[in-house]
Amino acid sequence: MNEQQQLLPLFEVFVRSKRGLDHKHVGSLHAENPEQALEYARDCYTRRSEGVSIWVVKSSDITASQEEDARSFYDPMDDKPYRHAMHYQLPEPVNNM
Amino acid sequence: MTEFSVNDAELEKRFQDRVDDEQKIEPKDWMPEGYRKNLIRQISQHAHSEVIGMQPEGNWISRAPTLRRKMILLAKVQDEGGHGLYLYSAAETLGASREEMVEALHEGRAKYASIFNYPSLTWADIGTIGWLVDGAAIVNQISLQRTSYGPYSRAMIRICKEESFHQRQGYESLIALAHGSAEQKAMAQDALNRWWWPSLMMFGPHDAESAHSGQSMKWKIKRKSNDTLRQDFVDQTVPQADFLGLEIPDPDLKWNEERGHYDFGEIDWEEFQRVISGDGMCNRDRVATHKKAHDDGAWVRDALRAYEAKKANKSEAA
Ligand SMILES: [Fe+2]
Ligand SMILES: [Fe+2]
User: Fold this and answer.
1) Is the pLDDT of residue B214 over 50?
2) What residue segments make up the domains of chain A, in order of their start?
3) CB of B48 within 8 A of CB of B105?
4) Of A93, B64, B176, B212, which one has the fewest beta carbons inside 10 Å?
5) The predicted structure's pLDDT at residue A6
6) CATH architecture assignment, domain A3-62+69-94
7) pLDDT of res. B4
């Protein structure tokens, strides 16, 4: 396969389903540029008014942590139980806070 | 930190434990090579089916009997193109490129649902396809929402949301025919006669003969066996045919009180083999049409690329 037939770049698509909610990852698509990706995303992922706003991001621009690294990445959080509300025992009359 | 000492057997055990525990497998997770291969084969076949499936229905867009039916059919066929995209994207997360998959389709190395190698001869075929072919697809896809591979499962959930419209519009259009004039009803019956058996074939060979089934069930790529899904489909479809006043073309079809299911006749497996291996009525035509559409679109992709290159040059020069 020569250079000319190479794949169009991959974009990840995020859709905000309604005002007040976060954008959520819905899938990916190939497009030549961000503008085209946005139009494709509209046609592919919002055919039934699933969204009020779309983000497209080049997949190669995403830096992600991996689950195998979870231990080194998140370990420090596990030994800080005092960050959780349930760590604190309060007397019954005031326990609804 | 990543543990470098774990061997493949240990990795495979952790993988299977995760699957057994109903956790999803995600793209960057370690997975057995067979699992990856099996998934790429199944998902790309599924994607090809969505896209090739646009042809028998697209055949009737320009001849739909009313504007409403035409708009509905256009929307449905567009959905199927979208389904193809969701599935190709899911397969790409496993390292298969879109080009490779399309090439495999064009070269006849990749299969797709054999049902789309049957011609859509009359308008009644369009309603029947929605009712039976999408109906069968839904039965399969509902079970696949629980498949173990995350991106495949998410694509299935998205697709299932859209499929119910496909089946309902088909059935609604068949009601119009079946409750219409004698000719219209005869046309609906004729369509059912031709599409019934190919619809049952969509679920694939019997469990005992299915090459990939055992392993796919263990890995939870598939969640229900071919024969179970086929039985589900027959059970739900017979009352729908009764409501239309149409007769399912199977003399052996009857309710089995003891099993709590319908018994039905044997599929013509020779025909199934013939069509799946490339010798159905429309195989060559379907692939040739896909190839032509792909080639005809090349200038658009070239133009986009040239425009991007020009923009890049300009901003470099500036
Ligand atoms: Fe579909
Ligand atoms: Fe469909």
Assistant:
1) yes
2) 3-62+69-94
3) yes
4) A93
5) 61
6) Roll (3.10)
7) 56
Q: Ligand 1 mean position to B113 CA, how many Å? A: 12
Confirm if B43 and B152 have CB atoms less than 8 A apart.
yes
Chain A: closest CA distance from residue B262 (Å)? 37
Question: On the CB side of B235, how many CA atoms lie within 13 Å of its CA?
Answer: 13
Q: What is the CA radius of gyration of chain A?
A: 21
CA distance A12 to A23: 12
Name the one residue in this structure whose structure tokens are 């070239």: B302
CA of A26 to the centre of ligand 2 (A): 19
Residue tagged 């990856």 (tokens)? B36
Closest partner residue to A71 among B1, B154, B158, by Cβ? B1
Helix B67-92 vs helix A34-45: angle between axes, to the nearest 10 degrees? Answer: 120
Is-contact B89 B155, C-beta < 8 A? Answer: yes
DSSP 8-state secondary structure symbol assigned to residue A76? H
Residues B219, B146 contacting (CB under 8 angstroms): no
Spans in chain A with pLDDT lower than 70:
1-6, 75-77
pTM of the model: 0.90
Assigned token pair, B318: 């500036």
Tokens for B175? 């009601």
d(CA B179, CA B30): 56
* ipTM for this model: 0.81
Look at strands A53-58 and A23-30 and give their pairing: unpaired
Cα gap B51→B77, rounded to integer Å: 9
How far CA B233 is from CA of B133, B137, B138, B199, B207, in Å, comes to 10, 9, 9, 9, 16
